[in-house]
Write a structure and sequence with these properties.
By secondary structure, the chain is an all-alpha fold. The protein is built from 8 helices and no strands. The termini are far apart.
């Protein structure tokens, strides 16, 4: 990635409380408005693939994952700030850029799916997010001495699962008129 991170995006993960808190707050702001949507007719009438967990599980899992991602960003910035090996500092910096990109994609995923009722776009977003997060996990593994991987690997697994769910929903409902579109 050719862009330079603004200093504030390095400063946030330097404080572990902000590193963990900012993604939780952004995720909550993205997710709270979805409560109404998941109670609506459109969502209730979707055909879903096998293996969907109860919807009450999702907010708790996402909160934990946002915290994990944030803590991994804190580990990455520590490596960037304190690293003596230029290649590891560079990898940590690259990982931080990937982190902010995947956080942005993560925050728009649910509105794409539930507000705009675009499971196909949400699936594309989720697939990109899975690839990006997996790549970020690989990039940050060595500079953080595997520390970030413990926090990011569960995120990658969950993202693969949510990609399966939204892809399955998109596939099973393509061409169908689903629910009340006036919500």
């Amino acid at each position: 990635m050719l862009f330079i991170l603004p200093e504030v995006l390095l400063d946030i993960p330097r404080n572990p409380i902000f590193a963990v808190g900012i993604p939780i707050v952004l995720g909550t702001l993205s997710g709270v408005p979805m409560r109404k949507q998941v109670k609506g007719e459109w969502y209730k009438n979707l055909v879903v693939p096998p293996g969907r967990l109860p919807r009450l599980v999702f907010p708790f899992v996402w909160t934990g994952l946002y915290a994990s991602m944030g803590f991994a960003s804190s580990l990455a910035v520590l490596c960037y700030d304190d690293g003596d090996v230029p290649s590891l500092r560079s990898a940590a910096y690259h990982g931080l850029k990937l982190y902010w990109c995947q956080l942005a994609l993560s925050v728009v995923r649910m509105p794409l799916f539930l507000v705009f009722k675009q499971p196909g776009l949400a699936t594309a977003n989720s697939a990109l997010l899975t690839v990006l997060s997996s790549y970020m996990t690989i990039v940050l593994d060595k500079p953080t001495n595997h520390g970030s991987t413990y926090f990011l690997a569960p995120c990658c697994a969950w993202l693969a699962y949510t990609t399966y769910l939204s892809g399955g929903i998109w596939w099973l409902n393509r061409g169908r008129q689903v629910g009340d579109e006036k919500q």
